[in-house]
């Protein structure tokens, strides 16, 4: 995965850079302690063994609603004036998150990406 971090029209996770491996002794809460993407185990790297993905809906669309009441999560990317603007902002936030975390895959429902 590239070391490039995607930032769209607005940065949604400011102050957080690319998250990387720092080892077990790191006190950085935003660092990998055990997962080292480049470490070889057997004949593959950890990145090849562990193909992480982020679920788009669960991470960026769900507002916390349940049978007992309305949603409790308000996201900054959900505050636009138009459906298209909100969808674009959500995609910007998602791809910023994916690249900062170094996750090469994501999964989604088609409706997650549409305005």
Task: Please tell me about this protein's structure.
This protein has 115 residues and is of the alpha+beta class. Helices cover 29% and strands 9% of the residues. It is built from four helices and four strands. The chain has a two-stranded antiparallel ribbon with strand order 1-2.
Short description:
This protein has helices at 46-49, 56-61, 83-101, 110-113, and strands spanning 40-41, 44-45, 53-55, 105-107. The mean pLDDT is 92. The strands form 2 sheets. A two-stranded antiparallel ribbon has the order 1-2. The protein has a two-stranded parallel ribbon with strand order 3-4.
Percent in helix: 25-40%
Counted up, domains total: 1
Radius of gyration of CA atoms, rounded to a whole number: 16 Å
**Strand order within the widest beta sheet:** 1-2
Number of strands: 4
| Major sheet details | 2 strands, antiparallel
Q: If helices are DSSP runs of H or I spanning 4 or more residues, what is the number of helices?
A: 4
Strand content: 5-15%
Terminus-to-terminus distance: 29 Å
Assembly type: single chain
Could you report the average pLDDT, rounded to the nearest whole number?
92
Q: What form results from the Cα inertia axes? A: elongated
Low-confidence stretches: none
Q: What order do the SSEs take from the amino end to the carboxyl end, as H and E?
A: EEHEHHEH
Computed structural class: alpha+beta
